[in-house]
Each structure stands twice: as structure tokens, then as C-alpha cells.
Amino acid sequence: MTKRYDVVVIGGGPAGMAAALSAFEKGAKVLIVERDVRLGGILNQCIHNGFGLHYIGEELTGPEYADRFVKLVESKHIDVMLESMVLRLTADRKVEILCPQGYVTVEAGAVVLAMGCRERTAGAIAVPGTRPAGVYTAGMAQKLCNMKGYLVGKKVVILGSGDIGLIMARRMTLEGAEVELVLELMPYSSGLKRNIVQCLNDYDIPIKYAHTITRLVGSPRLTGLYYAPVDENRNPILEQEQYVECDTLLLSVGLIPENDLLNGLDVEMSPITSGAVVDQNRMTSLEGVFSCGNVLHVHDLVDNVSREAEIAGASAADYAMGALKSGDTISVKAVDGVRYALPQRIAKGNEGKVDVYFRVGDVYKGKRIVVEVDGKEVYSRKTLILAPGEMEKITLTRADITGDVTVRLV
Amino acid sequence: MNMICIMCPMGCPLTVEENNGVITVQGHTCPRGKKYGEQEFTAPVRVLTTLVKRADGGMASAKTSGPIPKDKVREAAECVGKIVVSADVKIGDIIEENFYADGVNLVITGVAQ
Q1: Domain extents for chain B?
Q2: Could you say which of A5, A65, A310, B90 is the most buried, measured as most Cβ atoms within 10 Å of its Cβ?
Q3: Within this chain, do residues A320 and A331 fall inside the same structural domain, yes or no?
Q4: A261 and A146 in one domain?
């Protein structure tokens, strides 16, 4: 017999757990499907602190933040399937799962996508040179170090200044490795200022902006690499190539939402976020399928993931129990320096407020955030600085949203 | 002393000096930057997050429950690296009391599986 749940949540990380809890609070019968041996997702390997300041009001490490949610999930009647991988999702919300018991199909009143994101790999960025051992994504090095107790190398270069790369620079230094250099293609860091200072400057690790790797050297193991500054078109200036000896390269060059499950389904995707296009309830263009967390768009703070997942979970429960009707929507457009805004659609004619999250495409100083509805200004805020690495939030009054919304910088 | 303020993405370059016991901060844009500059100049502190071994060969993560002096962080990390905790350790367990600062404990934050 096929089991039926009101809400099936795919993924048991921070997004999945928060979505499951809010769906449960609404009275839904909830299942979480998680492919790892435990709940918590990537938080389990993020042993540094800085999680939860906004959402919980305490500064926690990743495993501690996860544990708060794991304990809550375990205290409720929420079913959890571990070591279970969703292989297929159908348009009528049948969820096909490979699990220790075999291959099972579960029917869902609503589905919440909470699969998170994956790291961009060496193959994805096409580093020239040999293909030696010793090249890791920063997150893989983090997992091997923090979960398994292996230090992946002794002389390290890091490409990209994403937060995981910066965190790993400090982590590997404290474990006895030498971090020679961080190279960042862009003229600014994609990581938080605090991580630049506390993970690099504290340990005298140099970072070179507008630089990239030109060649890897070594076989079978990495022995060194060439790097060079880049011109304004981000092409390396080969005449200024330099060599650095190293046995390990960590890549911290971006994250991609893991939406493979949606292949073959008629779900509208955003080419900018690589996630689904959603409305204010985080429902995708496929009825009854919701999305939240890093599978929707990559977040810099887990606190925002939890908040977003609460919206998705509660809405999924409402949908499954017939309390959420979809109607006409208006679109939210991002222009003039705003790279994307989310949700991309807002349903018409409701009361209350709606939060719109957005990211800018470059570093901007002294700009004003302006929101227009049908060309009329409904929101304006002055800013000191806006950076691509920091997600911004604006709160709009629903009554103001009578037509298409545009978010821009002036 | 030159430093970068970390209170917001601005990252103001601060210059902090002491003249006759008076600390002056320059380069900040807001009061939070001034306070950060003074703290970093007089007594910089950091929370250490790191790993301990379990008796069963697995790993557990640990943190200092509060900030410790910045110049003690490396020494503290080396000290933690030599600690072996029992296999049934749990989140919140205190491993060492008054660890590199009064009232600051070394606490388990996670247990790897």
C-alpha cells in the first residue's frame, strides 16, 4: 500500500527541518526524507560559530544550531527516513524513494524541496594544467577534517574567497597546515568581512584580489601552481605569472542549488538563482511544490534559511489541507544593479506585509534602494554599502502592491 | 595600529592610537566602529572553535564558551588537539573549565558520525 503524507519534505538540513516543523504546527502529517545517516545537513560539518544570531538570538556553531532543530523534530510526530534518497518526483506529487527497505513510493499532498546546494568543482571552472591529486572543494576538505579527522594537505592555496574557503584557511592553519595564499578572481571578496579579518588577517594569510590560477603543476600529487593578475575582462595577464609551491588546492568558487529532481518537470526556473521561480508562499510554478533554503537560492546566513523554510512549510501544509488557493500574481523584477529579487511573484489582493529578499551584482556605496509599483515609488531606503555577498531584505505593505513591482538601486 | 572594522560590510579601515593613555580611533563611520577599534586595540579576543578526538577514534567539535585572548588562540588550539574525550560525549559537555580565560569553558558542540 502506498503511504500518504500531507507534506513530504525532501532534505533534512536546516531548511528541511524548519519547513517540517512549521508544517507540523499547522496540523499536517509530515515526512522528512534525508539521504545522510542523520539530520542536520551541511551544518554538521560547519564547526565554526556565527550561526543563529538573528533567528535564535545566540551565537552557535553549526552542529549546535542543527541540534536545536533535530531535538524539536524528534519531539514531534514527524516521520523521518534516513539514508533515503528521492530518485524521482512526479507532477502529481508521487515521491519515489530509494531507502534501506527498498524502493518505495509516497504520495504527497504537498512537497517541500529542501535539498540544498553543491559546490562548484574543478571540472566546472576548467583550471588549466595537470590533473593531480590534492585538489579539493573547500567543503570536501571541511568534511574530511571536521567529521573524519583528516588534514588534506600541508601547504595550501585557496582559490576563491567564499566563506567556506576562508573558514577552511583558519581551520587548516589551526590544525598545523600552512596556508600560503588566497586568490580571488574578483576585485572584492564574496565572503563576509568578519571572515576576511578573523580567518585570514589574524593568521597573516595573504589574499590577492583580481588574481586567478593559470596552471596546476604536479603528478600524481599537486606540487605547485602558477597564478597571475587578471585584466578588466578577467583574463589572466600571463607576463606577470608567478609560481607558488603547494601540495593542496582548495576551491571556494561558488555554490549551485541542487535541483536535478526537477529535470523533466514543468517548473519555471530562474537562470540567475538556478532555483525555482516562487511566489510569496515559496510555491513554484508546479502546484503544490514548494522550495526553500539553498535549493531555492544560495543564502549567506542559515537564519534566513530557517525563516524562508518556515514560510514554505506552513504554506505547504495549508495547500495540502485545502487552505491555500493560488490566484493571480504580479511579478517582482530586479533591475539597475539588483541581480535578483525573491519571491519573483506575489499573489494579488492580500493584506499584511511581504518580505522581499534581494542581492546586488557589484559593490555599491551610497546607493538608495527603491521599490516601484507601476512606476510609482512605494519604498526607499538609503544605504552606506551593498555587497554581492550579503543578502538584503525589504518589507513591503501588501496594500501597496497593486501592479508589477520593480526593485532597483538609484 | 591599522585594522579593518568587521561590524558591517563597509569594512572601514581604522587607525587606532594611544597617546598618554587616551585611545583615539580614526577612519570609522559609525559608533560601532569606534567601539570595535578600541576593543581590538586594548584587548583583542576571539572564540576558538576546533576539534577533539574521541576515545573510539571518531571526532567531536568543541568551542570556548566565551572569547579568549587573541594571542592565546594558537596555543589553545594545540592544547585542544591533545585532548581525548570519551566515546559517549554529548553536545554541551564541559571538557575543561576556565580554559585560557576566567569563566570560559571548553565545551563540546557536536559529535561526528
Answers
A1: 2-42, 49-111
A2: A65
A3: no
A4: no
Q: Indicate which of B7, B10, B51, B74 best probes the interface with A, i.e. most A CBs within 10 Å of its own CB.
A: B51
Among A299, A326, A353, the domain-final residue is: A326
DSSP for A197-237 reads IIIIGGGT--EEETEEEEEEE-SSB--EEEEEEB-TTS-B-
ipTM, two decimals: 0.90
Question: Measured in whole angstroms, how far is the alpha carbon of residue B87 from the centre of its chain?
Answer: 26
* Contact check, Cβ <8 Å, B50/A47: yes
Which domain CATH number covers A382? 2.60.40
Q: Considering only the beta carbons, identify the residue of B11, B53, B61 that sits closest to A63.
A: B61
Among the partner-chain residues A47, A193, A390, the one whose CB lies closest to the CB of B49 is A47
Per the structure, how many domains does chain A have? 3
Grid cell listed for A186:
574578483
Domain that holds residue A237: 121-253
The reply to whether A373 and A289 lie within a common domain is: no
Element holding A371 (H helix, E strand): strand A368-373
B49-111: in CATH 3.40.640.10: no
Number of cross-chain residue pairs from A and B with Cβ atoms under 8 Å apart: 89
Identify the bridge partners of residue A99 per DSSP, sorted by sequence position. A102
A318 and A335: one domain? no
Q: Residue A280 sits in a domain of what CATH number?
A: 3.50.50.60
Q: Of A303, A326, A349, which closes a domain?
A: A326
Question: In 10 A of CB A148, how many CB atoms?
Answer: 11
Beta-carbon contacts of B26 under 8 Å, excluding residues fewer than 6 positions away, are B14, B15, B16, B17
Distance CA A284, CA A112 (A): 10
Per-residue pLDDT of chain A (410 residues; tens, 9 = 90+): 689 999 999 999 999 999 999 999 999 999 999 999 999 999 999 999 989 988 998 889 999 999 999 999 999 999 999 999 999 999 999 999 999 999 999 999 999 999 999 999 877 777 888 889 999 999 999 999 999 999 999 999 999 998 999 999 999 999 999 999 999 999 988 888 889 999 999 999 999 999 999 999 999 999 999 999 999 999 999 999 999 999 999 999 999 999 999 999 999 999 999 999 999 999 999 999 999 999 999 998 899 999 999 999 999 999 999 988 777 889 999 999 999 999 999 987 667 899 999 999 998 999 999 999 988 999 999 998 898 888 999 999 988 888 899 999 99
